[in-house]
């Protein structure tokens, strides 16, 4: 009986994984619910808030508001998003987060058994004035040879209507790499065909993870609610892929699973953290 229970569970897990993979490949994104438990999210939120407090005391520029012409009509001039790279450099709990088994299992189903951490980002959209992000693709910030880069967005808080939730254009990853698609200027292929307001909203709860392809067009509306929106973005790529030479974006090259086939003495000595 016990063996049958284990077999049934295994079949269910495999079936779910295939559904997840199929949805991602077809739509360019997939939301997985409840990956982190309430206790895990509680611990992450404590560390999240601690990082934010430390940032606010640092005296550094921590407002990552884009201030794009594409969103100037929907956000206040004093809007803000508090941001830092590489939360795993602040906290051992955050380091454990990027090694979470369920996160890596889902990532493996998308990019294979060799999983490299490129970087992480913390985003806090403050109450009432959290800034918007215009429609854009991620690939131009950290292009790879084989386009294996994916984002995994861990929701530390709710992300509901008026909170600046993510919005995506389904199937847009099939358009491939669009030139000048970083969101800082109007691009006909994107902005003549799609609007941020009409893009598909992704509503999420604490513990949910939104995965999307590096070529998926996405953005987010401003947070106009009375609650902060808290997310941690994790950028991952295949160990059989390689970031384009001379790219200046931070790349920690931390092997989370498997092997980094392109690591060399020079490349790991030049890691930007």
Write the topology of this structure.
Elements: H1 2-27, E1 29-32, H2 38-58, E2 82-85, H3 92-97, H4 101-111, E3 115-125, E4 133-136, E5 150-155, E6 166-168, H5 188-191, E7 200-202, E8 209-213, E9 218-220, E10 229-238, E11 254-257, H6 265-269
Antiparallel strand pairs: 1-8, 2-3, 3-10, 3-11, 4-9, 5-8, 5-10, 6-7, 6-9
Largest sheet: 7 strands, antiparallel
CATH superfamily: q2cbj1_9rhob like domain
Number of strands: 11
Share of helical residues: 25-40%
Structural class: alpha+beta
Any idea what the CATH architecture is? Answer: Sandwich
Structural domains: how many: 1
Mean pLDDT: 94
Taking all Cα atoms into account, the compactness measure Rg is: 18 Å
Structure keywords:
alpha+beta; Jelly Rolls; 6 helices; 21% strand; globular
Walk me through the structure.
With 273 residues, the protein is an alpha+beta fold. The protein has a single domain (22-269), classed as q2cbj1_9rhob like domain (Jelly Rolls). Helices cover 27% and strands 21% of the residues. The chain has six helices and eleven strands. It has helices at 2-27, 38-58, 92-97, 101-111, 188-191, 265-269, and strands at 29-32, 82-85, 115-125, 133-136, 150-155, 166-168, 200-202, 209-213, 218-220, 229-238, 254-257. Strands 1, 2, 3, 5, 8, 10 and 11 form a seven-stranded antiparallel β-sheet that branches. Strands 4-9-6-7 form a four-stranded antiparallel β-sheet, with no helix packed on it. The protein is globular and about 55 Å long. The protein starts with a helix and ends with a helix.
């Amino acid at each position: 009986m016990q063996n049958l229970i284990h077999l049934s569970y295994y079949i269910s897990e495999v079936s779910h994984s295939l559904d997840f993979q199929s949805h991602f490949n077809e739509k360019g994104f997939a939301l997985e619910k409840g990956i982190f438990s309430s206790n895990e999210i509680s611990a992450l939120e404590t560390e999240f808030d601690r990082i934010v407090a430390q940032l606010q005391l640092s005296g550094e520029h921590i407002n990552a508001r884009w201030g794009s012409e594409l969103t100037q009509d929907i956000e206040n001039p004093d809007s803000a998003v508090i941001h830092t790279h590489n939360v795993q450099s602040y906290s051992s709990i955050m380091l454990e987060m990027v090694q979470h088994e369920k996160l890596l299992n889902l990532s493996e189903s998308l990019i294979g058994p060799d999983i490299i951490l490129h970087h992480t980002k913390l985003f806090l959209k403050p109450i009432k004035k959290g800034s918007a992000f215009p429609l854009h693709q991620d690939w131009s910030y950290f292009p790879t040879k084989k386009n294996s880069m994916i984002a995994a967005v861990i929701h530390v808080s709710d992300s509901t209507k008026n909170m600046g939730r993510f919005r995506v254009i389904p199937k847009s990853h099939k358009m491939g790499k669009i030139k000048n698609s970083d969101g800082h200027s109007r691009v006909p292929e994107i902005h003549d065909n799609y609007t941020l307001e009409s893009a598909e909203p992704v509503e999420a709860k604490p513990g949910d993870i939104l995965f999307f392809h590096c070529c998926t067009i996405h953005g987010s509306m401003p947070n106009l609610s009375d609650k902060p929106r808290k997310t941690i973005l994790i950028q991952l790529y295949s160990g059989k892929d390689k970031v384009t030479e001379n790219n200046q974006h931070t790349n920690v090259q931390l092997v989370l699973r498997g092997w980094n086939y392109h690591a060399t003495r020079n490349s790991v000595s030049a890691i930007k953290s």
